[in-house]
Amino acid sequence: MTAESGDASADAGQAGNADGGGAYGAMDLALRVGELMLAGGETAEAVDRAIGRLGRAYGLPHAEVNVTLAAIGVSYLPRGGRPPVTAERRVRRRLPNYARLAAVHELVRDAQEQRLPLRQARYALSDIIGRRPAYPASVQVVALSLIGAAGAVLVGGGPVPALAAFAAALIGDRTGDWLARRGITDFFQMALAAAIGTLVTVLLVAGPLDVRAGTVIIGVVIALIPGRALVVSMQDGIAGDLVTGTIRLVEVLFTITAILSGIGAVTYLAARHGLPVSPTDLPTVPSSFAAPQTFGAAAIATAFAVYHLVPRGYLPPIALGGAVAWTAYVEIRALEVPAAPATAVAATLIGLLGTAFARWRRVPALICVTPCIAPLMPGSLMYRGMLQLSAGNSARGALTLAEALATALAIGAGVYIGGELLRVVRPARRVLRRRPV
């Protein structure tokens, strides 16, 4: 942090900082809040807005904010020719914690409404950082594995594929954690996790059990696809934060490439050794409402929420949102609408309803929307495309993977459009600062 003379602090204090902490204290609080929000998966637009609100609340009314995926910078130019105050904070670890994100948003709202002096705000932020997670680490591990199991049920798998997907996701996650402790990059962690899920699928198909090909690996892929980063990348890009949105999207594409690499390597080796892995008999979306698949969608949304540490009180509406998203998608597909447009419509519906619910509960929309769109992730298309490539049908495989990518992007765009539609009908309320007398 670059600190300047005491004149800047005095200027900030005269601008309305009754605590006397000056520009340094206000900027430190704003940067720490921004870091927590960005690390928790919030959009660059929301981080910029929160820092601006804290600056106006604590005596920095005209601060310039620069938010990227890796760093947050704040600059303040006092009046009267005093030297500027500039500070920057890097975001080194991005671990989603939606309960902490909701608490930070509440702190910003209290500061904006002038109910929280600067000193108390800093104590409150330290308390938020020191809180225990909403769920133990072991519960998060189980939740990720449950996403895989529910994903297998979602595409028509029975108890055996669900159990196999649970085990594959668990082994992949623990293997990735072991590699992470040894400094191996996320790309290879994801590739190995996808390879493990595909290997389990190949062994089940080659064995005596009558298991439909693909149900296991599709469940694992649904668990691995970075839905949170995908949604936020599209929101940043559409909102005009092109640098941050592009970086996030590139990160998502690298993750998807890693998943496809793990699937492709195992399926290619299986095909070369004559194992029965074929793209002709893959699970498909039901043409009408089916209770097991709807239950699987609700379970995916709930497990996704637990994995991202959403507070317990939001789990029932999130489960309902996951079921609504899947039902809408199935009914639209029954009208012979392609996967990408059907996904976009279902995601738009969830964006609209989830944002409305989040406004009512006064929490970030990310908490209520992102888990609900997890069942829409294009796991089937990704697996089908890689099998087609492994079978030598390069043109058809490339088209299938392009459709999978378009479907993934449609999810993020649909969520953002749903929120914007609500903003058109009912603009968010703004709390205006009282002018000094």
Instruction: Trace the largest sheet across and list its strands.
Output: 1-2-3
Q: Based on Cα principal axes, name the global outline.
A: elongated
Distance between the termini: 34 Å
Tell me how many strands there are. 3
Tally of separate helices = 17
Structural class: mainly alpha
Q: Helicity range of the residues?
A: 55-70%
Overall pLDDT confidence: 81
The gyration radius over C-alpha positions equals: 24 Å
Low-confidence stretches: 1-21, 430-437
For the sheet with most strands, the description reads: 3 strands, antiparallel
Secondary-structure element sequence?
HHHEEEHHHHHHHHHHHHHH
Provide the β-strand percentage band: under 5%
Q: Please, could you describe this protein's structure?
A:
With 437 residues, the protein is mostly helical. The protein is 67% helix and 4% strand. It has 17 helices and three strands. The chain has helices at residues 6-14, 22-39, 44-57, 98-112, 118-130, 137-154, 159-180, 186-206, 215-224, 227-239, 242-272, 291-307, 315-333, 339-361, 365-369, 379-390, 394-425; strands spanning 64-67, 71-76, 85-90. Strands 1-2-3 form a three-stranded antiparallel β-sheet, covered by helices on one side. It is elongated.
